[in-house]
Amino acid sequence: MAAAFTVPAHTTAPIRVPALAWALVLLGTLALYVMLQENGALLHHSWMVAHELFHDGRHALGVPCH
Amino acid sequence: MSYKPLLLRALVAGLMAGLLVAIYVFAVIEPTIDRAIAVEHAAEHDHGHDAKEMFARTTQKGGGAAASIIYGVIVGAIFGTVYAAVRHRLSLANEVTRVAWLAAVGFGAVALVPAIKYPANPPGVGDPNTIGQRTTQYLALLALSILLAVVLTHLSGWLRHRVAPSAHGALLVVATVAAYATLLAITPGSPDTIGRGVSAQLLWDFRVRSFGGLALLWLGLGTGFGWLLERHSERTLEATPSPELAGTRA
Question: B51 φ, ψ to 5°?
Fold first, then answer.
């Protein structure tokens, strides 16, 4: 199946993505969650500081907010 | 091309796009947030309780700008890594067009689809009692939207050698529209109702401006990253010409 949409190799060779890069993606996703989504559902209530600080950003970026 | 120089350029493009959005948020979105907060405070005052805020408005405006920049950098890093993983599968001519294509898919799946189902709301609209439910709904839609984009990409590859090239594009458009229309139809709507003196004009202004910010981010990231990567790719080709390409470039 992968072969079906792999263009000839000499045009674009695959890039080796290190495993650490995917850890970085996971970390980034987690950071986005804390910054934009955390409403006290998952973490301690003290994390609400982040909620209040990034309040305008949440509204501007269109994520749910109070 | 290797991962590290690519990631670096994705981070730079994300930072620049984030800065652009921060300026946009400050100049275009903040005035509507101020309007909404004025409405919210008037309503609270009428009911005899003035809410005590944790941060001053100026701090929150700084936080809004900071959020935009951090968002740009992190989305840039994630986008760059996904691009590195799928780049060789995108049958387009160069980095600019490949990045633009993936950015268009990203914008559609991550920004457009959630914005249609759960449009942005200014402060004072959301019910604090439903925030948990709304967050779950939003994240579920976001996850399903990204999943559909991946499935449709695989469908595109699967169809490539099974249908005529002329039918391939049309079939893909039909499949994409049908899949996302179904997703938007079956996901539950927001439990909140718009009330408490928020006018339709204010709501519309805010939603259009918020969506403009998301569009700006993806546009900035998509064009900036593509441009930086294309430049890098041309330079590395010049530095180490492979015998295969040397002939075609002469």
Answer: -70, 140
